[in-house]
Amino acid sequence: MNPTALSAWIDGIGFIAPGLPDWPTARAVLRSEQALTAAPSILPVPAILPPAERRRASRVVKLTLAIGLEAAAHAGADVATLSTVFAASGADGHNCHALCEQLATDDRQISPTRFHNSVHNAAAGYWGIATHAMAPCQVICAYDASFGAGLLDAIGELLLARQPVLLIAYDSEYPQPLHAKRDTPDCGGVALLLAPEKSERSLAGITVTPTTDAAETLADNGLESLRTSIPALRSLPLLQKLARAEAGPVCLDYLAPMQLAVTVQQC
Length: 267
Hints:
Number of helices: 9
Strand content: 15-25%
């Protein structure tokens, strides 16, 4: 047995990206059953939040709530009981932009609401408010490798606690002029509900090991553009295997020269 191998079962998936408003749509595109249509990301209104927090909810809060709830519903899980790992390459780009604009004026008074929405763990905080979850929560950032870092952290926690863990990996765009330095085109993300044991809910099993092999690319130019431009969507080669119900290995981008070799086991 490989001592560096980490294994888990995937019980639910949530997804939003440009042109892909949910996991069923993404699954159809990844199966080549329909073409990817260029369109902005659609972010549902977070009805689960109290009215005051709903009005203040930023784009990343709407994104993370939508994909996290979709993955939990897919698995039939109680969100209030789930440990979570939030992984993102940055914080809220629009709030960061607004703060910079304010600080560049003579009136440098910062809105407390604007500030607390700008920090890296804001989405995790809103998740706790919305779901009343009291389970452990981790917030991870590893720049373009954030999906891989989040996946490793989530499976590590899963193996220690032997309880399901919800991984929510996401990213958001920055307006200009910051966009010129960090050109993520739109917000997008994936949520995976990971479980320590196979059940009737399980979609597939995964085993993750380190490798120095090259990460896999996608044949569809539109999907490959999403994979490379939105860090959380480095997950797409794995999601394509899951969508197509294919077993076998897939290599995901991580911290070069190390990548992540993920072996998919179908149920």
